[in-house]
Here is the input.
Amino acid sequence: MTASLRRELLDACRELDDRGLNRGTSGNCSVRVDGGLLITPSGIPTRDLSADALVPMADDGTWVGDEAPSSEWRIHRDAYRHRPDLDAVVHTHSTHAVAVACLRRDIPPFHYMVATAGGDIIRCADYALFGTEELSRNALAALGDRRACLLANHGMLALGATMPAAIALAIEIEALCEQYLVACSAGEPVLLDDTQMAEALERFATYGRPTGPEEPHGR
Here is the structure.
């Protein structure tokens, strides 16, 4: 486990807090490593977190070190199994994502940037108690072949080929949730149709890729 990888994950935790996507001990993030993952520990506020406290976990769910892994480690471990092409997972309790998740709504195609998560909607996973296998199963079902989903009455999950890509996607999903709530407060948003979203998805496949295929773009 390299010191640079620990530093990258610690910096990611701090960025999520600095941007207001997580607060205190809420949320968690991880990166894939050979044979498993490196994940944030359970119950330690980011301000008190050190690189040494990050928890190496094997794919079988065992870990080493003085700290226990995040209670949501199953989501992270199972996401890597589900999406071998992606190497970073971010879970946030950001305000607007939580608000939409508490309404148990998918984010519909009210804006073409919904396609940044890889589909024509961003699904909301069915509710399950935090830290359970059921929640992980529900999250994977909502993700499908996409890179983000909401978790009912809980928060948001974003995946990326790199940690910066996962964070960028989480920021974009939070912005979309805020925009969707504002649009709904003024009336019923006009949704893009299947053809329009297919065009957006096609454009996303080739447009603005200087930093790799997982980086949200479209501005």
